[in-house]
């Protein structure tokens, strides 16, 4: 038994990070399905693949809210948070070998970090761009991406146009600036420990000083 693990939303300033995991017998059954890295697929194709994956394979998701990420960052690095979450997904699937997208510049170190969070002896194949190299990780990236995209759409129904949640998205930045200007604080769906937020709050406070 093998599994693939990947995440979506690691760098987002708004909303959750989602880890997706998919398990199967061997790599070949994922290769023949034609799964590809979720970033290379259209939203419609991702949704089609997602329905196929959840219908035919064992899957799992681990969701970390913005507040949970902020709390964990007080005691560990973001890479450790992702590794711990990858380990949780691996534990749910209990494979013999897990293929993971390495979130550390050192692939071997990242595998060791994940192993430190596991209770069972599971082989970890940690590679950069694993979602391109292994179809099982591509499948996991699709599960993570589609799950997070659906959660972002739910947040939009509550909060309005928040964009994708990433700091590089003009809609996300516009939403944050407007919200902080009107309310004087970030929205509860924001990752307060992100520099994007601390910089905006610093500018807001500086502006208030000049008003006196």
Automatic annotation (TrEMBL):
InterPro entries: RNase_H2_suA (IPR004649), RNase_HII/HIII (IPR001352), RNase_HII/HIII_dom (IPR024567), RNase_HII_arc (IPR020787), RNase_HII_hlx-loop-hlx_cap_dom (IPR023160), RNaseH-like_sf (IPR012337), RNaseH_sf (IPR036397). A divalent metal cation binds at residues 6-7, 101. PROSITE patterns: RNASE_H_2. Keywords: Cytoplasm, Endonuclease, Hydrolase, Manganese, Metal-binding, Nuclease. Manganese or magnesium. Binds 1 divalent metal ion per monomer in the absence of substrate. May bind a second metal ion after substrate binding. Residues 1-206 form the RNase H type-2 domain. It is found in: Cytoplasm. Coiled coil: none annotated. Belongs to the RNase HII family. This is Ribonuclease HII. It comes from Methanolacinia petrolearia (strain DSM 11571 / OCM 486 / SEBR 4847) (Methanoplanus petrolearius).
């Amino acid at each position: 038994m093998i599994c693939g693990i990947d995440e979506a939303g690691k760098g987002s300033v708004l909303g959750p990070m989602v880890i997706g995991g998919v398990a199967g017998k061997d790599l070949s059954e994922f290769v023949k399905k034609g799964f590809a890295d979720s970033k290379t697929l259209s939203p419609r194709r991702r949704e089609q693949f997602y329905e196929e994956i959840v219908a035919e394979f064992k899957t799992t998701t681990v969701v970390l809210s913005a507040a949970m990420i902020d709390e964990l960052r007080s005691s560990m690095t973001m890479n450790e948070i992702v590794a711990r979450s990858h380990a949780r997904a691996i534990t749910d699937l209990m494979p013999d070998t897990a293929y993971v997208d390495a979130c550390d510049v050192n692939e071997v170190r990242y595998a060791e970090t994940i192993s430190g969070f596991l209770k069972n002896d599971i082989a970890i194949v940690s590679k950069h761009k694993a979602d391109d190299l292994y179809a099982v990780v591509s499948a996991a990236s699709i599960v993570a991406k589609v799950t997070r995209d659906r959660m972002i759409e739910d947040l939009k129904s509550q909060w309005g146009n928040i964009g994708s949640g990433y700091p590089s998205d003009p809609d996300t930045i516009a939403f944050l600036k407007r919200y902080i200007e009107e309310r004087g604080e970030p929205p509860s769906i924001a990752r307060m420990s992100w520099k994007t937020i601390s910089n905006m709050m610093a500018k807001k406070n500086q502006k208030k000083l000049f008003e006196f």
